[in-house]
Write a structure and sequence with these properties.
Blueprint (H helix, E strand, L loop, with lengths): L4 E10 L2 E11 L3 E7 L5 H8 L7 E6 L2 E3 L4 H6 L2 E4 L11 H6 L5 E2 L2 E2 L1 H14 L15 H14 L4 E5 L7 H16 L3 E5 L3 H7 L2 E6 L2 E6 L7 H9 L17 E9 L7 E6 L3 E6 L5 H9 L6 E6 L2 E3 L4 H6 L2 E4 L3 H4 L7 H11 L10 H14 L16 H13 L6 E5 L7 H16 L3 E5 L3 H7 L2 E6 L2 E7 L5 H8 L7
Parallel strand pairs: 3-10, 3-11, 6-9, 9-10, 15-20, 15-21, 18-19, 19-20
Antiparallel strand pairs: 1-2, 1-4, 4-5, 7-8, 11-12, 13-14, 13-16, 16-17, 21-22
The chain binds adenosine-5'-triphosphate and magnesium ion (MG).
Adenosine-5'-triphosphate binds next to strand 2, helix 1 and helix 14.
C-alpha cells in the first residue's frame, strides 16, 4: 500500500517551451487532488512524467517516501501507477475482455482460453458496476465506454496511484455520474487520485485538494477546497480577474439569414425547422445524442438530408458537400475536432489557413504567406494559443491549444454569413472561453447568424439570444433569452421520467 505521492521540483523543457518549472506538491491517500490550469499550463506533461512516458529534466517523484525514476510506461505501471490519458490510444480490434486482461489472459497448458477470459472480465466489470459486454470490440465503444474500460484496467492492476486527464470532456451527464461514482469508490479505498479538468464545478464537486499551474509554475496548492471560491481559482489560473466570463452583449438583429425547413436525416427523424437572424446567437441545447450534431452536419452538407431544404439569405442552397456550404459563407466547427480536424504534422499556420486556402481553387497555388502569417499571429494573440512559434507542428501543442487552432481555422474564413459551432469550448480553459464568447458576439455584430451547440447549460444561458432545445432527434421547444432558466431548459431536454 502506497501511503503518499510527492512531486518535487519537477522541471521539463521542450524545444522553445519550459512546460514545467520546479512543480512541487503532494497528494494524500484517500483524497482526490485536482490539477487545474490554462491550456498549455503543463498538466498533461506532468501526468506523462508520472506515467513514465516523459522523463523530467530535473526533480524527483517520491512514492511512499522513496524516490522513483520511471524510465518507461511499464516501470510506472509496475510501481502501481495508472494514468487515464487525455487522448486514449487503443487497439481497435481488441475486445474489452482481451484489453482488460492483457498480460494475464487465462490459459491452460499455454493455450489462450477465450471463454475463460470473457467470464473473468465479465465478472470484473459487473463488480465495478460497469454495464458493458466483455465481447465487444474497443472500436465499437464510445469514448466514455473506452474510458471506463481504462479505469477498470487500472483497478484490476490494483493501481494505487490513479490520474485522470480531462476524463469527462466528452462524457454525457449520466456517464459523468458513473465516473464520479467510480472515483469516489477509489477514494474510499484509500487510493491516491489526481484529477485534471477545465470544468470547475467538477473540481468543487469531486475533489478534496487542488494545485493550480500557470505556465509550468505551481501558483498555489489548496489542501482543502472549503472556503475557496470559483473566482479565486480562476484568478489563480489566468493571472487576472474575470468578473463575468460570459459578458453577454445585447445587439440589434437583421433579417433571417439561415432558414432550415423541415429537414430530416438519419437521427433527426422528425422534420426540423428553425431560422436564425443576422446578428443573432442561437444556442442548441440537449442531451448528448439528442440529434444536435447530426442536424448541424445536415446543414453544412457533411451528412445528406433525407428531406427538407436550407436557405441562406432567402436563397436555397444545395449543400451536397461542405465545399458548397463554405462557398456560401457557412462555417462549421465540428465537435470531434481531433478526428476530423487537425493535420498533426503540419504547422499552426497551415492548420489555421487550410480552409481559407481551399477556397482559392487554382489560386491556391499562389499562397500569400505574408497574409497567412498575419492572420496566424492575430489568432495566436487573440485566443491565447500557446505555441513557441507559428511554425510549430500542431501535434506538439497541448490538447486545448489544438482546439483553439481548429476554431481559428473556421473563424478565419472570409465572407462568413453563417457560423455553426459544435461544443466550441470543450477542453478550453476559462480565459480562452471568455475570448471565444467575445469572438462569437463580434461575429454576430458583423451580421453573421451564429449557432452554438453546447451541452453545458450555463454556457447556453450565458451567451445565447435564444435557446432551441432538442430531444430524441426533434426540436422540442424554443426559449427566448428573457425566459431562460435551467429548470425550463432541463424539463424540455430530459426524458419525462427524469424531470423532478
Ligand atoms: N512533445 C512535445 N514537444 C514540444 N512541446 C510540447 C510537447 N508536449 C507538450 N509540449 C508543450 O508543453 C506545454 C504544456 O503542455 P501540456 O500538454 O502539458 O498542457 P496542458 O496543461 O495539459 O494543457 P491542456 O489543458 O490544453 O490539455 C505546452 O506549451 C505544449 O505545447
Ligand atoms: Mg492536457
Amino acid at each position: 500500500m502506497v501511503n503518499s505521492l510527492r512531486l518535487n521540483e519537477i522541471t521539463k523543457r521542450f524545444p522553445g517551451v519550459r512546460a514545467l518549472d520546479r512543480v512541487t506538491f503532494s497528494v494524500e491517500p484517500g483524497s482526490v487532488h485536482a490539477l487545474v490550469g490554462e491550456n498549455g499550463a503543463g498538466k498533461s506533461t506532468l501526468l506523462r512524467i508520472l506515467g513514465g512516458i516523459y522523463q523530467p529534466d530535473s526533480g524527483s517523484l517520491l512514492v511512499g517516501g522513496t524516490e522513483r525514476r520511471f524510465q518507461s510506461a511499464a516501470s510506472s505501471i509496475a510501481a502501481g501507477v495508472a494514468i487515464i490519458h487525455q487522448e486514449l490510444h487503443y487497439v481497435p480490434n481488441l475486445t474489452i475482455a482481451e484489453n482488460l486482461l492483457l498480460g494475464h489472459l487465462p490459459h491452460r497448458y499455454g493455450f489462450f482460453r477465450r471463454g475463460d477470459a470473457i467470464r473473468v472480465a465479465g465478472g470484473h466489470l459487473r463488480r465495478m458496476g460497469v454495464d458493458l459486454n466483455p465481447r465487444a470490440k474497443l472500436k465499437t465503444l464510445s469514448i466514455a465506454e473506452r474510458q471506463m474500460v481504462e479505469i477498470c484496467k487500472a483497478l484490476l492492476r490494483q493501481a494505487q496511484i490513479i490520474a485522470l486527464d480531462e476524463p469527462t470532456s466528452s462524457l454525457s451527464h449520466h456517464e459523468t455520474e458513473i465516473l464520479f461514482r467510480l472515483v469516489r469508490d477509489l477514494r474510499k479505498q484509500g487510493k491516491i487520485l489526481i484529477y485534471v479538468s477545465h470544468r470547475l464545478e467538477e473540481i468543487f464537486e469531486l475533489c478534496d485538494a487542488c494545485t493550480v499551474l500557470r505556465d509550468g509554475h505551481t501558483v498555489a496548492t489548496h489542501h482543502s477546497l472549503v472556503g475557496v471560491s470559483r473566482a479565486q481559482l480562476v484568478e489563480e489560473m489566468v493571472g487576472r480577474k474575470i468578473s463575468d466570463i460570459y459578458n453577454y452583449r445585447p445587439r440589434s438583429m437583421g433579417p433571417v439569414r439561415l432558414e432550415v425547413k423541415a429537414v430530416t436525416g438519419k437521427q433527426v427523424a422528425r422534420p426540423v425547422s428553425f431560422s436564425v437572424h443576422s446578428g443573432e446567437v442561437v444556442g442548441f441545447f440537449g442531451l448528448v445524442g439528442s440529434g444536435r450534431s447530426e442536424l448541424m452536419h445536415l446543414i453544412f452538407g457533411a451528412a445528406r438530408p433525407r428531406s427538407g431544404s436550407i436557405e441562406i439569405d432567402g436563397q436555397r442552397i444545395r449543400a451536397r458537400h461542405p465545399i458548397d456550404a463554405i462557398r456560401r459563407g457557412v462555417a462549421f466547427c465540428p465537435e470531434d475536432r481531433k478526428e476530423c480536424g487537425i493535420i498533426p504534422i503540419r504547422s499552426v499556420t497551415e492548420n489555421i489557413n487550410l480552409t481559407a486556402r481551399q477556397r482559392g481553387g487554382l489560386r491556391a497555388f499562389l499562397i500569400d504567406f505574408g497574409s497567412e502569417f498575419k492572420v496566424t499571429d492575430r489568432f495566436i494573440q487573440r485566443l491565447g494559443i500557446k505555441t513557441p512559434s507559428r511554425r510549430q507542428k500542431i501535434r506538439f501543442l497541448s490538447g486545448g491549444n489544438q482546439q483553439k487552432v481548429i476554431l481559428a481555422r473556421w473563424l478565419n474564413l472570409p465572407n462568413l454569413r453563417v457560423v455553426i459551432m459544435d461544443e466550441p469550448t470543450r477542453g478550453i480553459d476559462v480565459g480562452a472561453k471568455h475570448e471565444i464568447y467575445n469572438f462569437i458576439y463580434e461575429l454576430a455584430e458583423r451580421g453573421c447568424a451564429v449557432v452554438v451547440v453546447s451541452s453545458e447549460l450555463p454556457e447556453v444561458i450565458g451567451i445565447a439570444d435564444r435557446m432551441v432545445v432538442m430531444r430524441e432527434g426533434a426540436i422540442i421547444g424554443e426559449i427566448p433569452r428573457e425566459d431562460f432558466s435551467e429548470h425550463l431548459a432541463l424539463s424540455l431536454a430530459l426524458p419525462d421520467e427524469q424531470v423532478a
